[in-house]
Design a protein that fits this description.
This protein has 459 residues and is of the alpha/beta class. The chain has helices at 3-32, 37-69, 92-104, 130-147, 177-183, 196-208, 219-226, 239-251, 272-279, 308-315, 391-405, 424-429, and strands spanning 80-82, 85-87, 111-112, 152-153, 158-162, 168-171, 188-189, 260-264, 269-271, 289-297, 320-327, 330-338, 341-345, 351-352, 371-374, 381-388, 416-418. The protein starts with a helix and ends in a 30-residue tail after the last helix.
Length: 459
């Protein structure tokens, strides 16, 4: 039997079993509450809501679960680039290093069984929350760079498996003893006994993204912050709206992150004076770290191929923390590429909510299977993220990013840097959930974005 077909059937059967269990519970509760009209109505409404949530979760598990099990073929002839690092897959040590670094990225997916979201009875984000989950992954990558020692990787135990690159290996923490000795100065292990404080930071970051109302970057908080942009639980969130939601979330978390700020570019422009004003501290020569989020639209209905070179160059920079993007109405978190294919993490997999108040398992927050998608399928609407630790890093970021976005001679740059500050009049007249993109003057015109991840675009 085809392995991917078997996996799909397994996922579908598990979802069906969950539905059957819930249906039995629903029927039992209705029978027990018979004769208590008001109580029964309330209970049936609650159980029906839970049943619907599981039905949606089951459908998405069947719809997307099999794609997560399919294999992505990686070439040994070409390097893989991921968030500023390159890996030669023909080299066995590099293969293992790539797999370990990919598995160390924080993976946030659909969840089910959490407390109802603000203003709704929804207890799952399955089917609509993929942009918010992709946004969580981008922010989490920035927090890993901000709070973790350089080069940290997660040492989650993995069984002997034939992986998605058709490589067979047995690992406990990703490296053999000899490899660990030779690379000790470059790569730390989050899970080793010597690094328990680092592992504590790892878990603390995950708790910030928990599926409960108190988590500063959890789905409940993001939905609450989305209300100011006219969004509610169950609505579609575009990547530009998500950028502003992340900014508000970090602004409200000054106690946990006093030395981190978020800047969202306006009209495809990073205004340097505004960034410096955000980052400057009263103490001379001290800057706050900054996450820079740039909402852009790289074409009309489809991605303009002229921008592919620039996207690749950005993903080759160490200051890049990824891209909230995807296919139309299907958000993904892009972290790298090989040849003409993007490397991504997929949030379209519904998992049970994890109770992070206990010593919770970490495996469901890490994905060991790298996935690829052709650049030609990329939705033109996306948000690109960058991180700078301090002032020197920010100046370096400006130089390297400016060079990368100017790589395409046939189009205007994806976005620009401007020595100045945002014009307040433009800020007042520009909705926070709109984006602007640049094309050659001969191509200016109204664009149909009905299938895109953003509702509309200003030209």
């Amino acid at each position: 039997m085809n392995p991917s077909t078997s996996s799909a059937q397994f996922v579908g059967q598990s979802a069906a079993d969950d539905l059957m269990d819930d249906w039995v519970f629903f029927s039992t509760e209705s029978a027990v509450s018979q004769g208590l009209e008001e109580s029964r109505d309330d209970q049936e409404a609650e159980d029906t809501g839970r049943f619907k949530d599981k039905l949606v979760s089951a459908w998405n598990s069947v719809k997307y679960g099999w794609t997560l099990k399919q294999k992505s073929k990686f070439s040994k002839r070409s390097p893989v680039f991921m968030l500023g690092k390159s890996y030669e897959l023909k080299d066995e040590v590099d293969q293992r290093h790539f797999r370990r670094c990919f598995a160390s990225l924080l993976w946030f997916t659909y969840r089910r069984g959490f407390r109802p979201l603000p203003g709704s009875s929804l207890t799952t984000d399955s089917g609509w929350g993929c942009v918010l989950r992709s946004s969580q992954m981008l922010l989490a990558q920035g927090l890993l760079l901000h709070l973790m020692p350089p080069g940290c990787t997660w040492s989650g135990n993995q069984r002997v498996v034939k992986d998605d690159m058709d490589l067979i290996h047995s690992v406990n923490d990703g490296f053999s003893s000899s490899e660990r000795e030779s690379k000790r100065s470059r790569h730390s292990s989050w899970g080793s006994i010597l690094d328990r404080p680092v592992e504590g930071t790892h878990r603390r970051i995950l708790r910030w993204f928990a599926d409960n109302p108190t988590a500063p970057f959890g789905i409940h908080r993001l939905v609450e912050l989305g209300k100011s942009s006219g969004k509610k639980a169950g609505d579609w969130y575009g990547p530009s709206i998500a950028a502003h939601i992340l900014r508000k979330a970090v602004e409200a978390s000054v106690v946990d992150l006093p030395d981190l700020v978020v800047y969202v570019a306006q009209d495809c422009t990073i205004y340097l004076q505004d960034v410096r004003k955000l980052c400057e501290r009263p103490i001379p020569q001290h800057w706050k770290s900054v996450l820079i989020l740039v909402p852009v639209r790289l074409g009309g209905q489809d991605l303009n191929p002229s921008y592919i070179t620039s996207v690749k160059k950005l993903l080759m920079l160490e200051c890049c923390i990824g891209i909230i993007g995807g296919k139309p109405k299907h958000s993904l978190f892009f972290v790298g590429f090989q040849d003409d294919h993007l490397l991504y993490l997929d949030p379209h997999y519904c998992q049970p909510t994890v109770d992070v108040t206990k010593n919770f398992p970490l495996e469901s927050f890490h994905c060991k299977n790298p996935r690829k998608m052709s650049f030609s399928r990329m939705d033109p609407s996306c948000t690109i993220g960058f991180y700078a630790k301090g002032q020197m890093e920010f100046e370096s970021l400006c130089a390297s990013v400016n060079e990368a976005v100017s790589a395409s001679a046939e189009t205007y740059p994806m976005f620009i840097f401007e020595e100045g500050k945002t014009r307040e009049e433009a800020r007042a007249n520009t909705p926070t959930h709109s984006v602007t993109f640049l094309q050659r003057k001969t191509q200016l015109g109204r664009v149909d974005t009905s299938n895109s991840m953003d509702e509309f675009v200003l030209l």
